[in-house]
Amino acid sequence: MQHTISKFLDLAEQAARHPYRRVDSTSSVWIFGAGNFGCSVSDALIDSRIEVAGFVETNPKLKSVQHLPVIDWEALASKYPSAQIALGIFNRNAPYDELLTVPKRFGFDAPLLPWEIYDQFSNALGWRYWLSRRADLISQLHRIAAVADRLGDNLSRELLLRICAFRLGLDTNFASYKSPENQYFNALSIGALRNTLITYVDCGAYNGDTYHDLIHQQGIRCERAFLFEPDPANFSALVRVCGAANPEVICLPLGVAESHRILSFSSGQGEGSAVAVGGDVHIAVASLDEMFPSARIDLIKLDVEGGEAQALLGAKSLIQRTRPVLSMSLYHKPQDLWELPELLFDVCENYGLFIRQHYYNSFDCVLYAVPKPQ
After folding, report:
1. How far apart are CA 23 and CA 20, in angstroms?
2. pTM of the predicted model, to two decimals?
3. 261 in a domain, yes or no?
4. Is residue 156 part of a domain?
5. Residue 114 — pLDDT band, cuts 50, 70, 90?
6. I need a surface site. Which of 79, 108, 128, 190 has the fewest CB within 10 A?
7. Is residue 277 scored above 60 in pLDDT?
8. Is residue 12 part of a domain?
9. 60's torsion region: left (phi>0), alpha (psi -120 to 50) or beta?
10. Is the pLDDT of residue 274 over 80?
11. Which of 81, 111, 141 delimits the end of a domain?
């Protein structure tokens, strides 16, 4: 325990010695990337009365965005060689250690990175998946260390440490790291389920892609599958793709939470949507305990846009009664890194917990809870 804590405390000291850079409000800013996050960064800067000169992209598709020019790197280097640049790209597709080579090739200093931008403009930017203020993450490192010490293997502990270092700007190379295992369904999660008839619950089933991934895993025999998807457009696609062709599948137009109710969502925030009072989309949710008061469930996947904790609370009796394997997203909120494992330590008695990183920039980090043999 002491060795694990010391690593995280060392990380806190490193972060304190390397404070974030800040946007220079006396100089105009060029934003690298004109997508959703880039536009949100532009809005945040303008709201703070900081001049945004425009956007820069490697291959611009538009000449202007938000009434601001969009130019390529050659033009920026030629006309504005001393430009202040902010990185307006925040997704799982382009690893930051690769993106940072682009401005460097044209003679620019490293752009301000999303966590540095967020630290300065968090109020304006709002919820952005795992982004958090630097001080908030540092203040939780002792708590995260306690979680790390209880994880099921050294790789999980190392990954948790590197995720924290990456989000503090101390391990940019982690941006391009991906675990070799298949996401959600791999030796950790389905190793003990092969060659048995299983019942599967998918919370956040989207269009059925993860269900089809599961049934194509070697040795997996899915007797019944319950696929939850509250978004109307996604649900239509789910029924169309899975409903008729797979008689073992039941598609449910519901989300999951700790009880049955109607939730508001805010949509259109870059990478996804989030539960919010007064949101523009309303969905029905139910608890898994209510839906399955006596059924046996063998495997549960949770990817519910930040509602994982509520879903777990609504499945506590089910988990304790049938001891399913759990595969859940660990990146929708900054506090997921410690709060979701802590909750599972409480709910899942005699389980092993494991972390794997399945895509770039610490997106698609998954927490696996696997029951130990009794």
Report:
1. 10
2. 0.94
3. yes
4. no
5. very high
6. 79
7. no
8. no
9. beta
10. no
11. 111
Q: Which domain holds residue 313?
A: 178-371
**Assigned domain for 155 exists:** no
The per-residue pLDDT for 275 is: 53
One-letter-per-residue 3-state SS of the chain? CHHHHHHHHHHHHHHHHCCCCCCCCCCCEEEECCCHHHHHHHHHHHHCCCCEEEEECCCCCCCEECCEEEECHHHHHHHCCCCEEEECCCCCCCCHHHHCHHHHHCCCCCCECHHHHHHHHHHHHCCCCCCCCHHHHHHCHHHHHHHHHCCCCHHHHHHHHHHHHHHCCCCHHHHHCCCCCCCCCCHHHHHHHCCCEEEEEEECCCCCHHHHHHHCCCCCEEEEEEEECCCHHHHHHHHHHHHCCCCCEEEECCEECCCCEEEEEEEEECCEEEECCCCCEEEEEECHHHHCCCCCCCEEEECCCCCHHHHHHCCHHHHHHHCCEEEEECCCCCCHHHHHHHHHHHHCCCEEEEEEECCHHHCCEEEEEEECCC
Least confident of 31-45, 109-123, 239-253: 239-253
When divided into structural domains, the chain yields a total of 2
Domain boundary (77, 96, 111) is at: 111
CATH of the domain at 307: 3.40.50.150
Same domain, 192 and 337: yes
